[in-house]
Design goal:
about 260 residues, alpha/beta, TIM Barrel, eight-stranded parallel β-sheet, 10 helices, about 45% helix
Length: about 260
């Protein structure tokens, strides 16, 4: 534990107690620094965004790579950071607990464990095992003495429930009511980007994340510009680029 971890955990827990906040997902140090500059109150890593930056598919990054990445993000910002920790990089509860401890040591204020097995033939853990896995992560956090926020894609012993894939307001409202008073995180990305912060807040959503959405936005711009150069010989999309002077100023003194 570093000196900044407990205050960050306290801030992160407080954000979940009332109101609604947006938890954007940087995929590298630069994007983390810039999101803090914009005034967001907390950040979350994105497994997909980071994997794509390494030329790998989502889920293709090793535990060691992910731990280094999470540590780099927490070191780059003063904001609380939630770690997208996939399935805990393990199937059995004991191994989930071990890896949870490794993640805690990176200075995070919270972490998310999902019930996706990574096996397309059986994509979700059987319910009993899914519950045991979250309980194992919960015990590891409790034993650490650092009361960080545990987010789970199942309803066992987690502090915050994560609802990926929902887009209909009535479905979101039902989820919020079903797990109350536990806070709910809704993922907003390309499939449901018509939703707004105020709308989700009115539905009772406590936390909004964008997952790989910002990384995919960057990739979309990059792909369109590169294809236009290659196919049409035109550089006109570069007129929409960020200003290098602004980024130089923002990152000056950060290294």
């Amino acid at each position: 534990m570093n000196d900044a971890q407990l205050p960050a955990v306290a801030k992160f827990r407080a954000l979940h107690e009332s109101g609604c906040f947006v938890l954007p997902n940087p995929w590298d140090v630069g994007t983390a620094i810039y999101l803090e500059h914009l005034g967001f109150k907390a950040l979350a890593t994105t497994s997909a965004g980071f994997a794509f930056s390494r030329g790998k598919p989502d889920g293709g990054v090793s535990l060691d790579e992910m731990l280094r990445h999470i540590g780099e993000i927490t070191a780059a910002t003063t904001l609380p950071v939630n770690a997208d920790f996939l399935n805990g990089f393990a199937h059995e509860p004991e191994a989930v607990a071990t890896n949870t401890n490794l993640c805690i040591a990176q200075g995070v204020a919270g972490l998310s464990i999902e019930d996706n097995t990574g096996n397309s033939a059986a994509p979700l853990y059987e319910e009993k095992l899914a519950v045991e896995r979250i309980r194992a992560a919960r015990r590891a956090i409790d034993d650490s003495g650092i009361p960080m926020v545990l987010t789970g894609r199942c309803e066992a012993c987690a502090d915050c429930l994560y609802a990926p894939g929902v887009r209909e307001p009535n479905e979101i409202e039902q989820i919020v009511k079903a797990v109350a008073p536990k806070p709910v995180n809704v993922l907003v990305s390309g499939f449901n980007c018509e939703l707004t912060v105020s709308q989700l807040a009115d539905l009772g959503v406590r936390r909004i994340s964008v997952g790989s959405g910002l990384a995919l936005a960057a990739w979309g711009t990059f792909i369109r510009a590169a294809q236009t150069i290659q196919k049409e010989g035109s550089f006109n999309l570069l007129a929409q680029n960020a200003a290098s002077a602004e980024l130089n100023e923002r990152f000056r003194g950060k290294s």
